[in-house]
């Protein structure tokens, strides 16, 4: 019998978790000005946390911070810093501590991507993505760790699923995200005794994001193909990643650290019979 067509629902974390679970907590999120990290920040703020969003474009950050504060009723400050610049990150941490007094949660989300075949990828192009994704994660952890230890807080690193196999034109991002996954595991075991957790969220195809647009030009039918072949019957939504974020930061995940959670609707397990 043919399976019934079923599309997994998209829900809000506030329908599942209590509204005030993060009251008094503070989030430091790199890449929070837009896309997936903005959605992750919004969800954490909806549960009562204040947030600092960090990025390179202060105009966009300022607008996002205003919108997030209005939408959630929690506080949000925009802080300009490039994750490749440790000094700027330390200044961003200082500004966050001066404003909110603590840091409980960190999202290492700043990332860069474009499609390029390895044969023509320049050294500088490869290095640039490694510097943003991998070194940027390392720099963010170094800048925040003292405060996260103090609050017995938690890290979430935003990775990807594309490095589980050989994804064409993604040598730079595959290498960078594999390293991020490895870094998180080390943080989990080194920092566990200090009460700090570290986990990875690996988004699959998430609709309406810059990453998805960069990887699948709107002119072709790739996005529609992702939707029709996904085992869950749809593309991912930013809310799917946001919900996983709320779970990982919540005490419901207090014995979960060093893990990688793909949020991909089962996409990575799909193998079409040949
Ligand atoms: C080949 C490229 C390129 C392209 C840039 N380069 N774009 N090479 N194809 N399309 C090369 C440049 O020629 C240069 O090398 C080097 O990369 C650095 O480029 P710059 O523009 O000088 O760097 P910078 O201004 O720092 O910009 C960084 C960037 C850019 C990554 C290149 O795209 C950016 O800022 N992106 C941020 C936003 C973003 O990418 N968001 C999507 C994230 S999604 P040469 O040799 O010429 O000097 C994501 C998810 C992944 O990461 C997983 C999804 C499933």
Main structural class: alpha/beta
Note the beta-strand portion: 5-15%
Helix content: 40-55%
Global outline: globular
Secondary-structure element pattern, one letter each: EHEHEHEHEHEHHHE
Number of helices: 8
Low-confidence stretches: none
CATH class: Alpha Beta
Biggest β-sheet, characterized?
7 strands, parallel
Number of strands: 7
Task: Write out the strand line-up for the largest beta sheet, numbering strands in chain order.
Answer: 3-2-1-4-5-6-7
Bound molecules: hexanoyl-coenzyme A
Which architecture would the CATH scheme give at its second level? 3-Layer(aba) Sandwich
Q: What is Rg?
A: 18 Å
The domain tally reads 1
CATH topology (level 3) name: Rossmann fold
| Assigned CATH superfamily | NAD(P)-binding Rossmann-like Domain
Mean pLDDT: 95
Pfam families: adh_short_C2
Biased composition (Basic and acidic residues): 211-224
Protein name: 2,4-dienoyl-CoA reductase [(3E)-enoyl-CoA-producing]
Region (Disordered): 198-235
What can you tell me about this protein's structure?
- The chain has helices spanning about 35-45, 60-70, 85-100, 125-150, 170-190, 210-215, 220-230, 240-250; strands at about 25-30, 50-55, 75-80, 105-110, 155-160, 195-205, 260-265.
- Strands 3-2-1-4-5-6-7 form a seven-stranded parallel sheet, with helices on both faces.
- The chain is built from eight helices and seven strands, in the order βαβαβαβαβαβαααβ.
- The model has no long low-confidence stretch (mean pLDDT about 95).
- The protein has about 270 residues and is α/β, with parallel strands linked by helices.
- It has a single domain, classed as NAD(P)-binding Rossmann-like Domain (Rossmann fold, 3-Layer(aba) Sandwich), CATH 3.40.50.
- Helix 5 links the parallel strand 5 and strand 6 (about 195-205).
- Helix content is about 45%, strand content about 15%.
- It starts with about 25 loop residues before the first strand and ends in an 11-residue tail after the last strand.
- The protein binds hexanoyl-coenzyme A.
- Hexanoyl-coenzyme A binds near residues 116, 124, 132, 160 and 214.
- It comes from Pleurotus eryngii (Boletus of the steppes).
